[in-house]
Each structure stands twice: as C-alpha cells, then as structure tokens.
Amino acid sequence: MGKRTRTIALLLLLLSMLAGNFLAAQQRFPKPEFDSGYVQPSPTTPEPRAIALEYFDVFVLLAVLSLASWLAIRKRSRKGLLWLSLFSLAYFGFYRDGCICSIGAIQNVALSIFDPTYAISLTALLFFLLPLLFALFFGRTFCAAACPLGAIQDLLVVNPISIPSWIRKTLGFIPVIYLGLSILFAATGSDFIICRYDPFVGIFRMDGPFLMIFLGITFLILGMFYARPYCRVFCPYGVLLGWLSRFSKWHLSITPSECIKCKLCKDSCPFDAIEYPVDPEYRSPEVSRRNLRKFILYIVLIPVLTLAGGWIGYKSHIFMSRVHNDVYLAELMIKSPELRQDEENLDIQAFLKSGETFDQLVERATVIRNKFKKGGWAFGGFIGLALGITLMNQVVFRRREDYEPHKGDCFSCGRCMDFCPVEKVPKL
Q: E strand or H helix at 275, and its extent?
C-alpha cells in the first residue's frame, strides 16, 4: 500500500469515526418533568460534545498553531495571520462558545494536580499544553491567530496609544497575581475565576449576565486606544506563554535580512513590544558598575521578597478562604445563628434541607482553610519571587544593535513586518 493510499485510508477512517460519534452525540437522559409548573431554564454553558468532536477541536487548534507559526516566521504574512485569526474567532469563539479554552484550562490542570478525585480530560490537557509547546519553539503564535479572546480585541485596534514604560511594567505584573490566584482557587476547589470573569464569553455566547457583557464591551472600546487590554493587563495564560517564548529558537523578526536602522518600524507595534538598540550610555563603565550593584542587591532581595510574600499570603489565608462556599457558609452560621431561621437566605436553607449536620460543615470548612494556609504560603512566595526577578531584569541589558521584538511581550501579529523596507535575501 502506497503512502498516498494509506493517507486516504486514514482520512476516511477518521471521517467515519467523526460521523459515527456525531450521530451518537445526543442527550442520554431526558430532562425531568415537573408537576409544579417549574420551567427549566436554558443552559448558558455549552453542552458536552462527543469525544471525537473534542479531539477534532484539538486537531483544529494544532492546525491553526502550525499555520500561524509558518505564516509568522516563514511566510511573514500579516494578511494571512489576520484571516487565520478571523477563522479562530468564528470557530473557537462564536461556534464553540469560547469553550474549551486554553486560558481556562489552567484551572483544570491545577485542580487535577491537587485533587486526586478530579481527572482532567486529555483534550483539556492538550489545549493547555499545545500553545505552550509552540511558544517554546516559535513564540506566541497562539496569541497571533489561535486565541479568540485576542482576535476579537486585535480586530478593533483603531488608534493605539503608547504609555510610559514604568506604567506598562506595573500593569504587566497584574496577570502574574491573577495567575497565582486562579491556581490557588482552583487547587482548593473554590472557584474557576478565569471562566467566571471572562469578559468576552458573554459576547461569544450571545448571552450572560449584564455586568459581564458590559465589561466585555468596555474592554473592546478601551482596546481601540490601548490595544489588547485584556491580553496585556489580565491574561494569566499570557504569563506562561511569555515566559516560554523568551526561549523560543525561532521567532518572528521585524526584518527578513540585515537591519538597516531606518526606524520605520519604531512605532509600528501597538503593543509596545519592540526593543530599540541599546543606548551606548548603558555600556559606559559608570552605568555598568551602578547596574552591577543594583543587580547584586536584587539578587539578595529575591529570597527576602519570596519569604515576605509567603508570610503575607499565609496571614491572608482566612480572608482568601472565604471565597469557598463552605467556609463562607460556616462562618456566616457561626457569627449569625439567627440566620438559620431566615427563609430568604437560599444558601442556608439549602444546607439545612440537605440533611448534613452543622459539625460536618465546620469540619469540611476547617480542611479547606488548612489548604489555604499552605496555598497562601505558595501564592505569596510565588508573587514575591516574581517581583524579585522582575526587579532584577530591570538592570540586565543585552547587547542589541537592531530593532527587535521582545520575545516575551510580542504577540507575533506581524504588523511590524509590513513597515520594514528590507527585502528577503534569496538563498543561493
């Protein structure tokens, strides 16, 4: 059997599997019927898909990541990346209702690590790992064309403004905190805050709380002037992508050949991700000695900040644990016993009718609070460590002669390439 024949046979087999699973993908259990006149509300979250269709989503993600990497690095086509991002917005955003999402998969992974009773699906794990793997080799091509949250913001960039560097770096630390909190709350089984506060999922599903839809529209309007505000100021997955992208072997470059320093690309990036040639002033002996002293100071501060952050996180565990419903309910019933008679408090009434004793609730809340003690240490230490490394990076200057994209911050959108007048030198 030839190679082409084998390929066709495999494709036919895949299509037959998809068709069979699609026909079998129906509701296994009918909705309950109520005699009281209660009308079951329509769900606002996507219904489960057949397993073959979930793997098809993974295949689409892999195809989009591969094509985006080729368009950004080899083809150098901004137009191709734009059309590909439109496809991702239509498919992963509006057709798949923003779920499954690589950003939200952070929480599934965290919960599966710390809760032995929770098993993450292979498709969710692949959605989490594949963009990170591509970032390690090709940069943040997921952000360029595969992420629907990034695509919907990128399309509305109208008149982007640049803000001072110190403000950008300060705002850029917020996603680190958000990442730590999302892992902490997911690991303790408290909440999936990334999904709960996704500003665009209501737009994708054409339904949702008014506040969240209003927040999504606000982000889009703000993004006309401060490009991709969610990606740059909140996205926790972008933190992981940025860290790995710094080590990418192949990455989008502004110029296809030698940079002629024409400065046409200097202001081409709406995300302020272009690094300029290092000023000769930073190479002087005086500045080098001063930066060396700062570098040594920040190295010493890193363990201090890590321990201080861990202590603050530990001391905050009581406050943070109230996010979990069991802890909140136990505290509420201890502080205000009279609320047990309040028939309008649905949380308390639901608990009283569950048949569980109050002592069982308190015992479970105590276990959860102990988890927050350990998690608070880890969360605070992580924030302190990240802060120390961020400070240290402020005095580390790499020799740079050309205009280059910052590998960690660059979304690989390809805008800057169109500003470069240098033509690619053909290989002999």
A: strand 274-275
pLDDT band at 47 (very low <50, low <70, confident <90, very high): low
Instruction: Tell me if the pTM is above 0.70.
Output: yes
Alpha helices in 139-253 (DSSP H): 141, 148-154, 165-171, 174-187, 193-196, 201-204, 210-223, 229-233, 236-245
Q: Is 86 helix (H, G, I), strand (E, B) or coil?
A: helix
What are the contacts of 420-425 at 24+ separation with CB within 8 A? 420/254, 420/255, 420/256, 420/262, 420/264, 420/265, 421/260, 421/262, 421/264, 422/255, 422/256, 422/257, 422/258, 422/259, 422/260, 423/256, 423/257, 424/76, 424/256, 424/257, 425/256, 425/257
pLDDT class of 359 with cuts at 50, 70, 90: confident
Q: Are strands 404-405 and 274-275 parallel, antiparallel or unpaired?
A: antiparallel
At 412, list the tokens. 């690989």
Strand (E) or helix (H) holding 376: helix 358-393
Specify whether the CB–CB gap between 45 and 32 falls below 8 A. Answer: no
